[in-house]
TrEMBL record:
This is Isoprenylcysteine carboxyl methyltransferase family protein. Transmembrane segments: none annotated. PANTHER family: BLL3993 PROTEIN. It comes from the Bacteria. It comes from Streptomyces kebangsaanensis. One of its GO terms (biological process) is methylation.
Amino acid sequence: MPWYTLLVLAVAAERLAELAVARRNAAWTRARAGVEHGRGHYPAMVALHTGLLVCCLAETVLAHRPFLPALGWPMLALVALAQALRWWCVTTLGPYWNTRVIVVPGARLVGTGPYRFLRHPNYVAVVVEIAALPLVHSAWLSAAAFTVANAFLLAVRVRCENTALTAVVPA
């Protein structure tokens, strides 16, 4: 269990690093007349991601979830792959990447890196991580509950992002 706690804390530290990058990028995009969209769902997104980390540990302790190597190791590999994909997205978008939906009018859509293959590859990383992180230590209730909650949130988020991009970014 101590190593799983360290894993969840490492993911939390990664989230804090994301927020630092996002804050810097938000200042950059706003300095270029960037417009924020979808502020209303942002607190729900923060709550979902924070709740996931808390529930991963709580379920593991309170429900005495065991580490099952046949499940845990593949899920750990998926968590690592999700992190790699997320940071590939961050580096590909550069100063345009953000945890918020901030769009600079007139900017072009990025078509390099993982964006060559998918319109929203960062959300693939999020979906994989939300399902896999709890399952590293058999927290299946957290995996199921947060996967469902995330599906609802992503429906709102992707629609918001697509609308924002269509409105201000030329094809």
